[in-house]
Amino acid sequence: MLTPDEKQLMQRCLDAIRERSPGFRARRPQLQMIAAVAHALARVDASDAERSDGAHLAVIEAGTGTGKTVAYLLPALVLAHLRGRKLVVSSSTVTLQEQLLHKDVPDLLRFLPFPVSYVVAKGRRRFLCPARLAQRLDQQAAVEPRDAPGQQDDAAADGAGVRPLRWFSRLAEAIDAGRWCGDRDAWPQVIPESVWASVTTDRPGCLGSRCPSYARCPFYQARQRAKEADLTIANHDLVLAAADMEPGSTLPDLREALVVFDEAHSLPSKVVDHCASRHSVCSAASWVSHAARDARAAVTALRLGRFGPDLPDPALPAARLCAALERLLEAVGRHCEFAGQQRISRFAGGVLPVEVRKAGAAVLDAARAMGQDLLTLRTALVDRAGDRAEAVQPHLATLGGYFPKLEELVATWDWMLCDETQHPLPVARWVERHAGSGGGDDFLVCAAPISGGPRLRELLWNKVGAAVLTSATLRACGRFAMFLEAAGLQGYAALEPLALASPFDYGRRAVLHIPGVRADPRDAAAHGQEIVRRLPALLARQRGSLVLFASARQMREVQAALPDELKACVLMQGECSRRELLERHRARIDAGERSVLFGLASLAEGVDLPGEYCTHVICAKLPFSVPDNPLEETRREWIEAQGRSAFLERSVPEVGIRLAQATGRLLRTDDDHGTVTVLDPRLGRTHWGRMLLRGLPPFRIVIGDRPLDAPGLAEAA
Q1: Domain count of the chain?
Q2: Which of 81, 353, 369, 556 could hold 317 in an S-S bridge, CB 3.0 to 4.6 Å?
């Protein structure tokens, strides 16, 4: 329950924003969201029994213009301050993290009567390992001349011409002089991946507090700052990883924290990616042999003693694992079909052939045994680090690189062999054929659950102190059902999702136009030709436009076929970075020129082009995904097996979310106006098209090739 003091402080903060921010208006949807966030997060102090109904969770769809960032940050910061709790705000991308760090949070803190410390949380591999840098400097100095002719300079990108020694020297000088904090993202140029991979580390390769460089380690310094900070800005991938580790290892203890998931619509797909596992068959045999060799070399170099019960020989399970991988390769060859250029063979219904299952079980047993032996050896290495840290660390770093590979191999076969009765939803299982390093074929064994909902429930919702999930697009076709199921949130009695409409006047300021397109969108060639014919007229009176395509191929073909005059105005995704693309677009508009952005689905999300930067959004085709990946095929197979329609339950709602994201690019401020044109007649002709329309903002809808004569839209038309 909220206390009177908490309510009073939230009101004081809101009053300060009103008084000191010209033009600020706390609209009704924003006030509703503040109240909903506050009541959910206030349940952080409730008992587990009191929280079992989901009252500590809030699901809020906040339409464009609601002011959702302020609406969740203000109550969350007040409650965290008064209750002595840590706050974690998680976004879907690093870009959104940076926006929170540099703009949203500092802007709000100006109005709060209490101090708030905040940091961005990043994974270990975003930071330099000083110990590895020192080793690489010594090693490279012995093999690379300092002034070799014809080499690339300091700012060289990754490639054959990179001079590692020069890079290592520059990194060392900068961190020793205090000019750089060891964060990869803080370096002014792009550090080549080949260089960075050799000077960073992961958890298995780290000595922790036993490392001589521990006191000046950038990662541990950043982690300490994160522990002390009131607010930690994270991303979904990092939160999921932290929830799977020991509490408090990389983020504040989520069991005690307040957590806000912004752009929460991406969380279900993130957790499926988190659960998915794969491993090679042929390539695995190579690194397994190398791991055993490197393990024996470490024992010899450090004189740890003879192999025995206290120090097992990793070569023995390695030989078992290589033999099991060979039998698996034979089984895959007999039971997986790759006709022609086909590179994926899916096990229908997730059922493995008996021979593949037996071979996989042998792989799993041997991999677990080898992993345990390497862990025992790692413990022995760490025990020696006290007096021989500099000698131990290179071996630990080398062996540390094998642990993630072994963990992935074990996780893959855990999913491949899991008892289906223990999982409420099926597991997708398949094999991918790829070119091997030796010139022949290699195979990837892949597995993933069709939904991450149960895992989210296990990792987060049943453990987290209190959480808010928000986005502008959580509903599909006007319903929360698909999101709640995918996010593992169904069944909580007290969880009532809240939908807050955008305050923008769509009826007066925006038109949804569905022209009388004759070509069937499923006929790519004919549909592309009609798009080419219609675009000049549609874009004739526009300064800033965004054209979204469902496929890169159609985008390129349409651009190539446009008249030269219009083609010169087009900026196409893929020609440069997303940031540069948007900057060039804005610069053209600012200069009074016309600019047309051509893009794919990624430009339909997280792009802010207010005013004249975008007065027309054109969707070339309804954004159906091609159900050709094994995971989606398994999902649809399962739905259809129950006598339900995968098209209506999966395809249409997914299109609904993507279409809502695309149309959300049009109105970004109260003063914006414009048109959304969908060049797909199915939106206006089919019963499921009308389902899609119900999930969109209340546009004035025009069907057919009629004039767009809405009041106030002459400029956009």
Answers
A1: 4
A2: 369
Stated as kind and residue range, the H or E segment containing 596 is strand 595-599
- Select from 615, 604, 623 the least CA-distant residue to 680: 623
Give the burial string for 635-665 (b: 16+ CB within 10 Å, else e): bbbbbeeeeeebeebbbbbbbbbbbbbbbbb
Contact by Cβ (8 Å): 364, 410: yes
Q: Does residue 207 lie in a domain region?
A: no
Domain housing 106: 26-123+223-272+455-500
CB contact at 8 A, 569 and 596: yes
DSSP string, 459-474: IIITT-SEEEEEES--
Whether 141 and 117 share a structural domain:
no
- pLDDT tens, position by position, 72-101: 999 999 999 999 999 999 998 777 888 899
Q: Model pTM?
A: 0.87
* 204 assigned to some structural domain: no
C-alpha–C-alpha distance, residues 256 and 194, integer Å: 39
Rounded CA separation 658/476 (Å): 9
The verdict on residue 218 lying in a domain is no
What separation in angstroms does the CA of 610 have from each of 505, 586, 589, 598, 615? 15, 10, 11, 17, 8
Which letter does DSSP use for residue 648 in this model? I
Query: Could you report how far apart the first and last alpha carbons of the chain are, in Å?
Result: 51
Is residue 664 situated within a structural domain?
yes
